[in-house]
Amino acid sequence: MADRNRWLVALASLAALCGCRAPPPAPPPGTVDPTRLVAAAPAEARDRVERKLRELGFSTRSDRDATLTLVAERVGPPDPAWATCPTAPATDPSSDRNRRSMEQPFALRSNVVARFTTPADRTLVSLDVLLAGRYRNPFVGIEFDERCRSTGGLEALLLGAAG
């Protein structure tokens, strides 16, 4: 009986300690929550997001499956409302003098995968967004990509369209 009481006291103490734990830290600036619960039915939310993507110049491919997955891509001029792209170094591979230049992206490739599921009585819209700046090496004319950081602007537009 005494062992059982000690065990209960230890369990209660552990539960109290876990309950007093500090809340998780806020996400760092610039991070985006790419999910939202909406009241619209999954098919309706998917149609709204697809319409918004087409408005924004994306080409879309949707699989009419049970998960209602939507895949979209757009290549266009860099949009500072959607992404911040780094300045990327370009080197001259044939130079003895180690010539370098710092380049800005001339295009932005935006890839979106949107999923529409129903974990409860509402629709969960989940977005995976990949943004890559397209750069040109002026010494050899070769193009290369560098990952860009999302500002949350594109995600906000799409989640707002979902409902």
Task: Please describe what this structure looks like.
- The chain has 163 residues and is of the alpha+beta class.
- It has one domain (2-162).
- Helix content is 26%, strand content 36%.
- The protein is built from three helices and ten strands.
- It has helices at residues 2-19, 42-55, 153-162, and strands at residues 35-38, 59-63, 69-76, 83-84, 88-91, 100-103, 107-117, 123-136, 143-147, 149-150.
- It is elongated, with a radius of gyration of 24 Å.
Task: Note the gap between the termini.
Answer: 57 Å
Largest sheet: 6 strands, antiparallel
Helix content: 25-40%
Residue fraction in strands: 35-45%
Rg computed from alpha carbons, rounded to a whole number of angstroms: 24 Å
Structural class, by secondary structure, is: alpha+beta
Number of strands: 10
- Tell me the number of helical segments per DSSP (H or I, 4 or more residues long): 3
How are helices and strands ordered from N to C? HEHEEEEEEEEEH
Low-confidence stretches: 17-27
